[in-house]
Design goal:
The complex is a heterodimer.
Chain A: H1 3-6, H2 21-40, H3 56-78, H4 90-107, E1 109-111, E2 114-116, H5 120-133, H6 141-162
Antiparallel strand pairs in A: 1-2
Helix pairs in contact in A: 2-3, 4-5, 5-6
Chain B: H1 2-15, H2 18-36, H3 42-49, H4 58-82, H5 92-103, H6 107-141, H7 145-162, H8 167-181, E1 184-185, E2 192-193, H9 207-225, H10 245-267, H11 273-287, H12 300-315, H13 317-323, H14 329-340, H15 348-352, H16 354-386, H17 390-409, H18 412-430, H19 435-458, H20 465-468, H21 470-487, H22 489-500
Chain lengths: ~170, ~500
């Protein structure tokens, strides 16, 4: 998804100057997406008589996407546009890590050699909160810990006691 | 006419049930609470709060969701008037004049005019929904697969034309959305499509995950990039909530015009509240005798878009309830909620479950009334909520979203998918692609494919069926016309102007 960012300065390999990098690399990425879609739906049966097969519509729309993506990329070659904004690393990385941690802890998982038992709602929520806090440069420890405890208690109260949704609370129950 | 009254009476008897009033009030309250938080839009709010309606009876759940929707919208305008960052897209416009008014010490007047405008628009559009429900449902009977397909195509074209930025890129987003919607099992044959043999993908990508990722997580990642110091909360105490007589006189025309414009734009598939508020503001500015006052605290600049977005929010239920087509992302979430409760949205809802249909319509009006009652006295509470620093707010939003997504299917994979869409949304933003057309296309994708396939089968593979059937031909003609107009260089300049304002 981010492949376009690395080469935001017009690369030496291109004979044309990239005038609108946002459009150019955006368009290229969409072409890539279309190619992946055509490739993965390639073995599905297509039109049979009058009837569409399961593969018809995906290939149709992927083909159209490739064409439109190419047009967008072409616009990027011909029309001047602003450079691609810098991608932040800190925010997205911690937020992503927090979400993945929640997903991994709530039910546990088993990936080959690594496996984690389900750790329950309380620990997952608390961990996700603490991890996501690092995404901001303005974090303060004491305040954050208090907020994490309060938010965890609130979520447990709301989802488990008030709404009675089936959640495992702790690793052992 | 008498039939309409009888139907409305039935609706009010359902809505006035103490339980349902309670759900409506609770929905409006929670919706406002979350909607006020900066950086969470209507779609994310409704998606986040979806799980809390699971345990309720169907009528109660839908009434509550509708309440959440209006509440979120109203909460968003409170944020944009008091802080100079809009809580969501629909209130971007309200920021312009609302925040200026607040700085001039007229925050109270701006808030109450927004509430009064919304309430008036709510009353008118409730009647409109009730009145148009029956005739449009009978229109739905004339619709075959070809017509449905053309109508949805028109909706997508509308979304493209009305999205800001390049038409070409919006078309690309529509196609991306359609493609993503096809991941999962094929409806007719059950063959797995583009699933990469991942078992969790065989049911397709859940719409809530996409919505939460693109509108919730992506928004947070983006906000983290910006310095939080730029938030500028009106510190002064809000006094004089009641608008003066002059305020009311000044804004009455704007409220009426905003309501009409919003009602029309809401019915159109692909339209909806965001477009309505943009259009109403631009229109008001154009016809104003002193347009230079706009942007410097003109009360019309608050009244018109607020009325329009509320009217549109409500009339966008019309295509959903009569034709079964969700015209925007929030309505798509409503479809999700209805499906969970075993209701298939469409013309049959009105005939088979009249108490649900009319109860929901009546509760729309009730919900608006509650908003005006609860919001004005509670403004102080909302303001204090705005003082919570973002560094504590966003982790709370993240965990809340995680729990919400997980609880829908008890699936950790859904949470991961939402995270991926969060990153994708961040990337889209960097390349100036609009997520709104993608989301609409994602919602309409399966319906469109189904109807396209059926239409082709009935017509024995003849593609001209879409232009030989009169209703379908008309819809296609409008769609093509719109696309051509939007692509014309002259109109392109005009569109840019509108969105810059």
């Amino acid at each position: 998804m981010v492949e376009g960012a690395k080469t935001s300065h017009s690369g030496g390999g291109f004979r044309f100057k990239v005038r609108g990098p946002r459009d150019f690399y955006g368009g290229l990425a969409l072409i890539g997406l279309a190619i992946i879609a055509i490739w993965t739906s390639g073995d599905l049966p297509g039109i049979h008589g009058f009837a569409f097969g399961p593969g018809t519509a995906p290939r149709l729309f992927a083909g159209l996407l490739a064409v439109v993506g190419a047009l967008v990329a072409l616009t990027g070659l011909l029309v001047d546009g602003p450079p691609i904004e810098r991608y932040a690393i800190r925010g997205p990385a911690w937020v992503l890590l927090a979400i993945i941690t929640f997903a991994g802890m709530i039910r546990g998982f088993n990936l080959g050699s690594i496996s984690i038992p389900s750790l329950g709602l309380v620990m997952s929520t608390f961990a996700a909160f603490i991890i996501s806090i690092f995404g901001s440069t303005e974090m303060r420890w004491v305040e954050s810990l208090i907020a994490a405890v309060v938010m965890t208690a609130f979520c447990v109260g709301l989802f488990v006691y008030l709404l009675q949704l089936p959640f495992q609370l702790w690793p052992w129950i | 006419m008498s039939e309409l009254l009888a139907n409305l009476a039935l609706g009010f008897s359902v809505a006035a049930n103490p339980h349902n009033i309670g759900f409506c009030l609770l929905g409006a309250l929670v919706g406002t609470l979350v909607g006020v938080l900066p950086g969470i839009g209507t779609v994310a709010t409704v998606a986040m709060l979806l799980p809390i309606t699971f345990g309720l009876p169907p009528v109660g759940a839908l009434i509550m969701l509708a309440g959440i929707y209006y509440g979120a919208q109203y909460g968003g305008s409170t944020t944009s008037i008091l802080v100079n960052i809009p809580g969501e897209a629909t209130s971007v416009i309200t920021c312009l004049d609302g925040h200026q008014m607040a700085r001039q010490g007229r925050a109270g007047a701006a808030l109450s005019i927004a509430a009064i405008g919304s309430f008036f628009a709510g009353c008118v559009s409730t009647v409109l929904v009730a009145a148009l429900g029956v005739p449009l449902t009978s229109l739905a009977l004339l619709f075959g697969p070809a017509e449905y397909f053309s109508l949805m195509l028109l909706g997508l074209i509308f979304a493209v034309v009305l999205a800001k930025g390049s038409v070409l890129k919006s078309v690309a987003m529509v196609l991306t959305g359609l493609l993503l919607s096809m991941v999962g099992s094929d409806l007719e044959t059950g063959a797995g499509r583009m699933t990469f043999d991942i078992a969790e993908l065989s049911d397709g990508i859940g719409f809530t995950n996409v919505a939460m990722g693109l509108f919730g997580f992506a928004e947070i990642i983006r906000n983290l990039e910006m310095s939080q110091e730029s938030r500028d909360i009106v510190k002064a105490k809000i006094s004089g909530l009641m608008p003066t007589r002059q305020d009311l006189i000044d804004s009455s025309g704007a409220i009426a015009r905003g309501t009409i414009l919003g009602s029309i734009l809401g019915i159109l598939p692909g339209g909806g509240a965001v477009v309505a508020s943009f259009a109403a503001y631009t229109f008001e500015k154009r016809i104003s005798k002193n347009p230079e006052r706009f942007g410097h605290g003109a009360i019309q600049g608050v009244a018109a878009p607020e009325s329009a977005n509320n009217a549109a929010a409500q009339t966008s239920f019309i295509p959903l309830l009569t034709l079964g087509i969700p015209p925007n992302a929030v309505m798509a979430l409503m479809v999700g909620a209805m499906t969970i409760h075993g209701i298939v949205p469409g013309p049959q809802v009105m005939t088979k479950q009249p108490e649900l249909f009319w109860g929901m319509i009546a509760s729309m009006w009730l919900g608006n009334l509650m908003l005006i009652i609860i919001n004005l006295p509670l403004v102080g509470v909302w303001v204090s909520l705005l003082r919570v620093p973002y560094r504590l707010l966003y982790p709370s939003i993240i965990v809340f979203c995680c729990i919400g997504i997980y609880s829908i299917n008890n699936s950790p994979t859904d949470v991961v998918i939402a995270a991926i869409f969060g990153l994708f949304g961040y990337w889209l933003n960097k390349h100036e692609f609009e997520p709104a057309p993608l989301v609409l296309a994602f919602v309409l994708g399966p319906l469109m494919e189904e109807n396209l396939r059926r239409a082709m089968l009935i017509a024995r593979g003849d593609v001209t069926v879409f232009v030989t059937r009169p209703i379908s031909a008309g819809l296609i003609a409008v769609a093509v016309g719109l696309l051509v107009i939007a692509a014309l260089p002259m109109m392109r300049k005009r569109r840019e102007e509108v969105f810059v304002e």
